């Protein structure tokens, strides 16, 4: 069976997913929709697909699955529409910036029995997957302490931060998901500190550009996250998991691995300077995993609930900064009227 | 302009080039030929190309360039035919195992004014290119001594070795080309030692599985090459260039870069175990460079003459092993009736 | 001038300091005292010194300085006695486990105008000193975030933990001092989490074996500390300082730096397995620094106040674990009647 | 038993050995001799030894062993004198620059049944010893190919080169000995190339500053050596041994191991810039091994014959450069009238 795709949103990340879909022998890109007709038609032409409206894709009998790459504030609505239309859904993170809206959306998906995968691309990075595998194989014994260092090469424009929900919801959320992915146990408390060291304008917009977090679990595991919006040496993405029998670490990646030695010492080039080049392979593997799950009708992972929990952790972090104390995650998720959204896990 | 391609040979390396051609927005794969009809049709179908015979491709007005991936003993003939047919030619190395046959072939290409690029893929590896760039930028001053370590994960079947021309012509030849590429000066003498340490059958077939070489240039630069048909830890491919102001080295590549620490120490995974995964990016860049050169009608590099010289160096190495002395490269190339083949350089 | 030394305590760490004193051309070891006569006489004999009682050393006119390596609960009393006796004092950390006792002791030293250096040996490690120098030279711009990972090869006996004041006072205290040393700004808040993952007996003794901390400063800098009493791969001691213009990190040290490659990958040996071999050079440099300071009559660093503040940070950490909130360091140090102890800084 | 030492030569290397002797609890430095009285008395005073003449040391009943650190041209004579005087002898390399003189000297030592250890300090480097141990433990299977890169930070004065016997006898000789040490089989042929790339004055003095060598053994093992008198990044000393089951490598050593990351990339400091700091530990272990051998009356290693063979390999290298061919080592050693010097091995 070939999975037939509609792509919603032909921007930067839409192009990445279009390439992943068309490179996969089990998939076909049938249609592209975008608010900008030229963006849609350029991408459709490149890959021999058609331009269609969202409504046409929704109604199309020749489309099995959609990839949602539209602006964040449209995600939840589109997920609900396409769940009702019976399409399998891959949606870029986040589902929404509001936990209650996410919960409502997931109820719709749940009611329709639909497939929803959320785009935490880092779970598909080959190096982080190798960390996960090493843990699963018992190579480090029981997981005890995780250290995540995650720094962007530079701060985004303040306008972006205003829309993104701030550092915890747009940046740390990846690390929060990764911590959950590797801890093998739900996070119980979140403690966070934020400060403004990089760009005063970020502070004026009410956000932080430097953050440190400690997550704890009920059994006493710890995860530490260190974030900065600035790293002169490139896109710094390191994970280390310390366990009872050993430790496993994923090193930083650089586009070119040479070393130049001279009187100043030994110098290796900077890291990747952009998430798209750093995570090229992760994006390809992510769509492959989605195609596999649609084909095999198996549950999607990371699921909508994974998206919800990561958002709740980000909210807990923000609350912790404001209140100067450890926040029980249940303070955020406890407000959920219906815990059934977790049932699918 | 789009460069329209015919692919000759749909085997392992043909598939790699087919993917590179179809991924390039400036190129189109029009036809595939192979002695095995099913191999040709499978590959053609996957990329929306036609199956054609070699004769049809030769005569086709809708084909600008060919990629020759057929068995080695057909290369020289095909190059001559397609040069006469006015097609730009990319040919997998070697042109032929016999220096005189290569010279004759290059004369034909030269006479037709054709474009011929020879597949020394390693020149396009991003890491080795970065080494070359560092030299070109003057970061290490004058090149003085090059150290190349090149080891295969395992020995090929003896049958392959019988056809391949032996370790110097099938394996060392890549390192000889790389040494020339980086020395920036022609090799003057070749001294080589060969022994059989890995597989007695290789010795019985008259070849070696372990080799050490020293190349010298007229100005006194040295290059050292260390080859083995066995490396339990993967495909070992290292280059280091020592210069008057510093040194630059390209490190080994591994598919996954994690590190596991425990009581045994700190362990990183083995290297790539296959040239195709090690040089994935090099193959893609190689075809891109060929397309650029066809499009811009600029001289191909590495050229047919580069292929000829690398072969002559391999022949010199073999002669050195047999005679136990340094061989002047001019002893091999001096027999050329017509030095004009070097004019294009 | 030669600095003439009395050594109080001929145990494990006493031997280390005896070697450092006798290796230094500016110093001489005159006398050794120990509650166990044989320990004192063995060490004295080895280095041509005399065995004397503490009282004799106190009264000796041929002794300028003492090194205190006796059990912790004797430190404060001995410091006071030798300060009154006009000897320069090097004391192993901690001065005492009780902040108020430390303050009282420092007042005596202050009143006598004496020289007191506290043994935070890691400040003298050549690698950490190079980190400090890189910061001082402006190589990374303004310090923003510090990450310290500090893990012991194995947990000490529970008896030791009962006497030592627990993980924060015997182990984390080194990292707390290092954070202060590198932050270049006093710590404002301490948040800590502790759990028992390694040895239940430690938990039963009321202590933790795994701890994570975040320190913040008034200007918004963060330091993260990750501690464990277990590391199968050796004595894990890493520091990384992230700044506005770059980052500097001190790598782990191992006694032997070879790498073995085979089918399992590339393996380097484990780290040092003991603080004495890891910090051999630091111990030697530490005593040299003390000798320099005695000779030049310059202020000792790290000072008694440095010892006091590190202890206060450890106390704040413990309070934070118990109360689940960020502790203002002034909550601990604010109780000090007389802030004048800080004047010497 | 305590080994009582006389030290001949109180220069740079004499001081290193004096420290090693006095630090060893099994040894005592009794006397120091030097042509410059002040050099002798300064060193003797520092370590509580006496100044004596060479004749007095020769005749002394309270001296068991001597360390010869005098100029090279006195070594062979002194070895003979002290062998006749019944002292155990540690002599800095080389015994002499002339193979025949060395052979004559060793016959005297042999006739007296004396103990003679030659100072190939690198055999005692902990990292190279770990390489040797890994081989001995079978971790890499059978040794097949050795790669040694050995580069000095800068060229010595031409005057030194004139006295030293040239690059092969003063610099490469260490690598030749190391190759023998690790090959586990005698070298059969030596092929060498030399050129002048660093300092023309070296060429004018008839020597080379850049050299590449290939050694082969009868069973087909290869060792490659790459030497330069220039390395802007410090004292480059690397060894890699490739075997049938894997590979082991000793990495370069640097005094400080930090890494600074910024927009230029990741930079580690240069290597040691001097053999004495690079091989500090090796010098200490070397003297310990000599003391052990004197104490236990076991054969010294490296022996006088090891010194002889290394010199013969250096001579073979020089001959190879001059004649442009592989030199059988037996061409050099075959001239030995009496092979019995090898019997002690």
From TrEMBL, chains A, B, C, D:
Q: Which enzyme class, named as a word?
A: oxidoreductase
Q: Which domain of life is it from?
A: Bacteria
Enzyme Commission no = 1.1.1.18
Query: Domain Gfo/Idh/MocA-like oxidoreductase N-terminal spans what residues?
Result: 3-120
An annotated GO cellular component? cytoplasm
Keywords for this protein: Oxidoreductase
Q: Name one GO molecular function term.
A: nucleotide binding
- Database matches in Pfam families: GFO_IDH_MocA, GFO_IDH_MocA_C3
Please give the biological process terms from Gene Ontology that the record holds.
Answer: NADPH regeneration
Q: Where is the GFO/IDH/MocA-like oxidoreductase domain?
A: 128-248
Q: Which family does it belong to?
A: Belongs to the Gfo/Idh/MocA family.
Instruction: Give the matching NCBIfam families.
Output: myo_inos_iolG
Protein name, as recorded: Inositol 2-dehydrogenase
């Amino acid at each position: 069976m070939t999975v037939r795709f509609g792509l919603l949103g032909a921007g930067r990340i839409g192009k990445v997913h279009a390439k992943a879909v068309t490179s996969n022998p089990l998939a076909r890109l049938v249609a592209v929709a975008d608010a900008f007709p030229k963006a849609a038609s350029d991408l459709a032409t490149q890959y021999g697909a058609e331009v269609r409206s969202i409504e046409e894709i929704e109604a199309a009998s020749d489309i099995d699955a959609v990839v949602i790459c539209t602006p964040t504030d449209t995600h939840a609505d589109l997920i609900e529409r396409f769940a009702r239309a019976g399409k399998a859904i891959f949606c870029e993170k986040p589902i929404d910036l509001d936990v209650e809206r996410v919960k409502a959306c997931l109820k719709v998906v749940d009611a329709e029995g639909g497939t929803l995968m959320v785009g935490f691309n880092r779970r598909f990075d080959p190096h982080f997957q190798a960390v996960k595998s090493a843990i699963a194989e018992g190579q480090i014994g029981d997981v005890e302490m995780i250290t995540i260092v995650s720094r962007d090469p530079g701060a985004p424009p303040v306008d972006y931060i205003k829309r993104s929900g701030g550092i915890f919801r747009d940046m740390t959320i990846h690390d929060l998901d990764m911590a959950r992915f590797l801890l093998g146990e739900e996070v119980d408390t979140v403690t966070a500190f934020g400060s403004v060291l990089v760009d005063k304008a970020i502070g004026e917009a009410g956000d932080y550009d430097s953050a440190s977090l400690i997550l704890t679990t009920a059994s006493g595991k710890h995860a530490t996250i260190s974030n900065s919006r600035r790293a002169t040496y490139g896109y710094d993405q390191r994970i280390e998991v310390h366990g009872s029998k050993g430790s496993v670490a994923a090193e930083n990646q650089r586009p070119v691995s040479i070393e130049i030695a001279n009187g100043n010492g030994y110098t290796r080039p900077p890291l990747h300077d952009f998430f798209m080049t750093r995570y090229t392979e992760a994006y390809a593997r992510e769509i492959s995993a989605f195609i596999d799950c649609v084909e095999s009708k198996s549950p999607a992972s990371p699921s909508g609930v994974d998206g919800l929990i990561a958002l709740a952790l980000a909210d807990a972090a923000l609350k912790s900064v404001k209140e100067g104390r450890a926040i029980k995650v249940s303070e955020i998720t406890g407000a959920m009227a219906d815990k059934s959204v977790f049932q699918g896990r």
